[in-house]
Amino acid sequence: MKANPLQTIMNPESIVYLGGSNDLQTMGTAQLINIVKGGYKGKIYPIHRKEKTVLGLTAYRNITSMDKPADLAVIVIPGKAIPGVLEECGKAGIRHAIIITAGYGEIGREGKRLQQELIDVAHKYDIRFLGPNCMGIVNGPIGLNTTWFPTKYRAGHVGIISQSGSYVTQTLTYFEKLGLGISQAISVGNQADIDMVDCLAYLGEDDQTRSIALYIEGIKKPAAFLKTARKITPQKPIVAMYVGGTEAGARACASHTGSMAGPNKLYDGLFHQAGILRARNITDLFDWSLALAQQPLPKGNNIAVLTNSGGPGSSMADEADNYGLKIPLFAPDTQEKIKAMTPFTAAYVNPVDVTMNYDLDLIYKKLPELILNLRQIDGMLFYGIFGTIHFQDKMTLAGNHSDTPLDLLEKTTEKACNEFIKLPEKFKKPILCACFSGREDNSVARIQDGGIPVYPTPGRAARAMAALWEYKKIKGHRFPRSPSRKTGSPGDDAGNTGP
Amino acid sequence: MKANPLQTIMNPESIVYLGGSNDLQTMGTAQLINIVKGGYKGKIYPIHRKEKTVLGLTAYRNITSMDKPADLAVIVIPGKAIPGVLEECGKAGIRHAIIITAGYGEIGREGKRLQQELIDVAHKYDIRFLGPNCMGIVNGPIGLNTTWFPTKYRAGHVGIISQSGSYVTQTLTYFEKLGLGISQAISVGNQADIDMVDCLAYLGEDDQTRSIALYIEGIKKPAAFLKTARKITPQKPIVAMYVGGTEAGARACASHTGSMAGPNKLYDGLFHQAGILRARNITDLFDWSLALAQQPLPKGNNIAVLTNSGGPGSSMADEADNYGLKIPLFAPDTQEKIKAMTPFTAAYVNPVDVTMNYDLDLIYKKLPELILNLRQIDGMLFYGIFGTIHFQDKMTLAGNHSDTPLDLLEKTTEKACNEFIKLPEKFKKPILCACFSGREDNSVARIQDGGIPVYPTPGRAARAMAALWEYKKIKGHRFPRSPSRKTGSPGDDAGNTGP
What we know:
Two copies of one chain form a homodimer. In chain A, 42% of the residues lie in helices and 16% in strands. By secondary structure, chain A is an alpha/beta fold. Chain A has two domains: 6-291, Succinyl-CoA synthetase domains (Rossmann fold, 3-Layer(aba) Sandwich); 296-477, Rossmann fold. In chain A, the strands form four sheets. The first copy, chain A, has a seven-stranded mixed beta sheet, sandwiched between helices. Chains A and B meet through helix 2, helix 5, helix 8, helix 11 and helix 14 of A and helix 2, helix 5, helix 8, helix 11 and helix 14 of B.
């Protein structure tokens, strides 16, 4: 079996770069800066007709003047010159390319002709390429970012394949706030050669990638897509957003990536057969991918809600219920135990609402452990993160500029968080949190960095929990339970005994 | 007609405060700090049995030792002592109170009894009070914040009434990121005296409030609620989130605010009759309230999408279509005009996708003006905000520490934004934006501060536009168009002529 060309494209030992200069205003230079300064350890060879150095690196006059072929060519020069350059790459022994430049198949007849030229040259020299009209790739773990958006991103376990370059570039600040780390992100552009199916196959095999997020404007080879996806989804979750299902969406997609879109129902069916979760918007796409990459799956849909505030607790319970989860009443003895541990204003039946108080040990440790230890409960939704944000402004407002109490608070809360983040692994049950504050709060940052997603609203945490359960069902369907489990014999650890 | 007691509660000239001390660790002190240091210009009288000053203010030993009655008492002392204190307030001539303390009607029989005691004392002295079990109020324009959450908030035009204190306290950081400004926010708690209907009537009359967001766990007086809401919604939009409609939600609400919840269908009917938009989650509740407070209503549902990136443009078009908006094809002559102004890679039929380029005049001025000037188009969804965030990191990564180019970029982009924010007023049509970067980008901040909402995802902008159209229909239904308009006579400025 032939190696997937993405193996080299995502992990090149050397890159030849066409389209960068010392002029910081150009897109090509912006992208080269990211490669040069983003942490990538491989060799980089800029090509420039006039300059001796580009961004401090020795520049080559052209590809033929190089000693030995690079693993990968990244090309950001005007479109008409690219077939010729690709020919040079072929002659020089370069076998992989990313073609960023737009103005091909997506703009009509002349563009299509030019795109066919690329394909012909590539075939002639056995070159495999990504694009054209794409934003390139991000390989989180090795620090390779060929896109133009320079914001520092987080390496992690969500793999992204997108027909829009923006979803792997301009979203980087969004991901950072969400605490979403990227394993490999690929902007597929016009898919003239390497297509979404190749990318899917690659991420299916990639060990760093624990969940896959797809942004789709139209699938060109549905049979191959289905076959590949079906191999992946029993082991690794895939979440897809498809935007070509409405009349307006289809028109937008056609002019964007030249995709032929189909009706929503067709895609619903395709995703269902493939075991893919369909997200209806960008928020859900990345929220769900994050939870799936980082948390264990619930064995059933009985979820506990633990909160220090009634409103967000009620909101989580309501949204969980709307999305197919259950918030079962705790058994009477459990209720009694919780009642004994909590203030007299607390609720203890599920949701558990400890009401506002400063007992970190109660909310981060004692109650979560008690709850997650319940055989009846498959996962926990949590609203009660409590860090320095509550006090930063207060110190300032109060005119107390000594930072000692804040330092102490920071240490105390982080210690509590460090215990909290161990719980999913310890109990093999998922925890998802919501907090209206973001990473400006030290505890939110600590919990996100510790692998537990923290969403900005209660509803988003609840929907992400529902996505975990949805994928659990998909997985269970693919690997049917053994008969002994079905009859509820001893050892049935998936059983939900109910309240 | 009796004055609404909230008139004084929201705008007191003097406050007597019970429950604050010089111990920064207590909740009562946290709340007092906010009042003292938050910008409020009225008089503040802390009551303390021992201290001579509290947070630098002269303290009084008790209410009876004060010279003249304050407009408002804010009470955060233990619950059992409150009836006695309220009695003292009554004797001293104080007629308004906010009772923050919890442990009343929401915790069972003993709490209910204590709550009745409060009501009896209040009746005896004609005291009107908010709470108990609430978080107090925020009056944005006068800088009065009685809640414990000290984060600086933005004064603006969204009025909030919430059965959860968290939605007017812990959400303040969330609001700040969204650029949502508060006119008046009220945490109603157990509604032992002043209830949601009183608050609604008050915000209905409040000039600063242009839209009202409700968080509801259960409505106690549906007939009064309906009557009051119906008076408001023809002039001022109301968005409500109700969480008691599921079994789990209802249980959570009962323990939280002692509310009796009803099935979703009942509330759907009530909201429909009242002309209230129902939001299904917190995200939509505040997104929609923000758009309704700040943008003109579309006259029809024909919306243009203007973007500098295909993916987000497609996503906005698709979600708009899903939520009942139309993204009509532009007329051929309009298409030609746009084609002539944009790069050859651009899309020009609607969505208009200028693709990534640095022409600020094109994306912020020329194209928006051309589009909003079209009789066919009722509003615009915009993805193309372009500020310093794209370059901050690049400067650092490139090792160019001179900040001159960044300063120039900041000035240039802000100048462009300053023109852009005038457009909704100029054309009397709404603009809603999406950008994955937040206020860390100077242009996002400038546009939000200029009154145009910028949402973190394309779908959220599209759904908020749909909410504007939804409210426009509610308003039109209440004030039926005159027959001449219906027949499309000259002067029918609401007509959608179509492409």
